[in-house]
Design a protein that fits this description.
Layout: H1 19-33, H2 35-44, H3 49-54, H4 59-76, H5 81-93, E1 97-101, E2 112-116, E3 131-135, E4 141-145, E5 148-151, E6 157-161, E7 170-173, E8 176-180, E9 184-186, E10 193-200, H6 203-209, E11 225-231, E12 235-239, E13 265-267, E14 275-280, E15 283-291, E16 294-298, E17 304-310, E18 314-316, E19 319-321, E20 324-328, E21 341-346, H7 348-368, E22 378-379, E23 382-383, E24 388-389, E25 392-393
Antiparallel strand pairs: 1-2, 3-4, 4-5, 6-12, 7-8, 7-12, 8-10, 9-10, 10-11, 13-14, 14-15, 15-16, 16-17, 17-20, 18-19, 20-21, 22-23, 24-25
Helix pairs in contact: 1-2, 1-4, 2-4
Amino acid sequence: MHSSYQVQATHYADMSLSVHDRINDLHRRADGLAPRLAEETLDAGCTNLTVREHGNLGPRQQKAWDMVAEAHGWNAISDTSELLAQAEQYERDGISYRIAWVGREDLNASPFEVVTEPTEAPQCPAESPSHACVLDDDGHTEHCDGGGTWTDPEPTTATVPTGQLRVGDVVLNYGMRVRIDAINPSPGQYGPAWSCPGTVLNVAEVLAAEVVPASFMTREGRRDYWAVQGNNRARWTVELPRPEVPADPEPTGPEPHGEAETADLFVTADDGHRTRSLLRDGEVVAFIRWSGDVIKVYFPGGTILGRLYRSGGERVAGEIIYTYRAWTASDRLEIRPADTEVARGASLPGAVAALLQHAADAHRQAGDQAGEDGEPYTINGAPACGAPVDGGRCGRHPRYHDGQPHIKEPGTEP
């Protein structure tokens, strides 16, 4: 068995069992080898590829991960008797094969195929005396064999990872043709991920096929909504030709970006979960999430950076412009006396930039206050940040402090 869930072909399944008992048996054996890893891998749908390849896993943990991945591969074809029988026959015959995602125009057909994996790529018999291949003016391969001539058909689809999707791409998913309207990157536990809200272009066809319920495509009054999301482990079939890559994408959203110091911040569109990311040079440096009337700002790792409070808005040239007040935060649930205002009347990127700058300045100040010999500040003999905070000194360990808020150590008041 080899599928897109797996990092390599494996053959752990007990072929004497029915397919569903086979899947359950793989999960049970994986749980016996490494319970916690097996559960995390199952919950993640085997998308935690970094853990498998670079997580310093022992042999038992690697085997548990591979068993869960193989179980996912069998589950993908478990309801299609023809594909299941073909894969089981290949298993018995020792033929190398793969469960391949191909997509289908027929919404009731399986989107998978069982294909053999040749040891060498198939070659066109160009050296045959009766066969010749030439490139035409458009770059297509033209074949001449005896009295017949034909040209390789133009491909109509391509397969790309999530991170290579573009605005305007039409993704084929569960029989839907989803046009991508926005690309929203976000930090993930096992690497970057993307949420791409889009518009279903063939709603009537999808509803007639009764594969995707109408409620699944309903959001905020729309009846044609769908989001394509995942990390680069996920692959998507897109229609060809694809839209051109914009030379220099412009920031989205109504907020002005006039401040010189925030010109390099890019604000993504809402991902559909009241979350937006802020990027600098293509890298997520913070993300914001609405919580009632307050906007909370977080570092990419999930540590709170601050809170934003939005103004009532002012109409300028027919457009409502909002400004923001930015306050630091050391606790995501409580407002503490040490929290301070760092920006007022700023745009959204300007307010976030002020919080990022305040955190960087505080960290730099802590470094400047270290001893002249380069020795770190200490509290009761233990290394500490030592930055002034709330009338005392920050007690966080310098090694684990980068990008984190300062927290006063009790007893450090002058």
